[in-house]
Amino acid sequence: MTFNFPSRQPTHNETLGHDCKVASTPFASQTELTLDPQGKPVNKSFYRSMIGSLMYLTASRPDILWAVCLCARFQTNPKESHETAVKRIFRYLKGTPKLGLWFPKDSNFDLIAYSDSDHAGCKVDRRSVSGGCQFLGNRLISWQSKKQTSGSTSTAQAEYTAAYSCCSQVLWIQNQLLDYGINIMNIPILVDNEACLGIVKNPIHHSRTKHIEIRIHAIRDAYEKGYIQVVPVATTQQRADIFTKAFDKTRFNQLVTWLEMVNFLELK
Q1: Is the pLDDT of residue 12 over 60?
Q2: Alpha carbon 180 to chain centroid distance?
Q3: How far apart are CA 58 and CA 1, in angstroms?
């Protein structure tokens, strides 16, 4: 997907005003965005310019990625409810101007990935949302949040599709590391769904997998060749959760900390 950014992006103060209240999270946990056909239309150009600014920022602020991707789905016909959600992201950013990724120099080079999904998470077409992140030691080096291209009939299918997407990213990183003489095998992908783990490890799951696209079974091939391994993780320890849905302040701040994001004002 290609984004065309305007030559001058709106600032926080231009978008919100000088006296706006800051938000504790980029998206309210109890809020649902829909097409809102009865809602009041807003300026499309301004809405798209805000989305463009935020899309650019997600390259260094993974904590806002899910919320930005959600709001970006309504650029064709944005309504007042959508603009309010976008402005909340700006209010969150205004309150966390010095929050960023931390890359400690003494961390190891172990590659580890987390994969998760929110089954039927999109309220418009009920498609699932895939989320994933990859760490090199304690350094977050890659992150993804994307609505799946087809509907999932079960949580297992949604998780399996997300694991496939995460696996593709892991294999790409693995090939990049080979250029630097670093060969890492059996890269762990942490998944919090037992059915998904079983499908990857045991090809005899006809009743659960016959409706899944053949290309997604490439993750089995990577597992059998020893490129990756799938490892169970508790849902409460799933770091990729932040790329699939909204959370309250406490859980959100915990996930942000697990992404190795720090407030640089607090560093000594």
Answers
A1: no
A2: 27
A3: 14
Q: Which residues pair with 114 in a beta bridge?
A: 133, 190
8 A C-beta contact, residue 6 and residue 52: yes
Distances (CA, A) of 134 to 93, 143, 190, 266: 23, 6, 10, 25
The dihedral of CA 45, 5, 133, 257: what is its sign? Answer: negative
Question: Which one has a higher pLDDT value, 203 or 83?
Answer: 83
Non-local CB neighbours of 53 within 8 Å, separated by 6+ positions: 5, 9, 10
Nearest to 221 by CA among 144, 143, 168: 168
Dihedral angle computed from the Cα positions of residues 117, 123, 127 and 128, in that order, rounded to the nearest 10 degrees: 0
Pairing of strands 187-191, 228-232: parallel
16-32 residue pLDDT tens: 655 689 999 999 998 99
- Are 29 and 247 in contact by the 8 Å Cβ rule? The answer is yes
Q: Tell me the CA end-to-end span of the chain in Å, nearest whole number.
A: 40
Helix extents (H) in the chain: 12-16, 44-57, 65-72, 80-95, 155-178, 194-201, 206-209, 218-224, 249-258
Please, is 261 exposed, middle or buried when counting C-beta atoms within 10 Å of its C-beta (0-12, 13-18, 19+)? buried
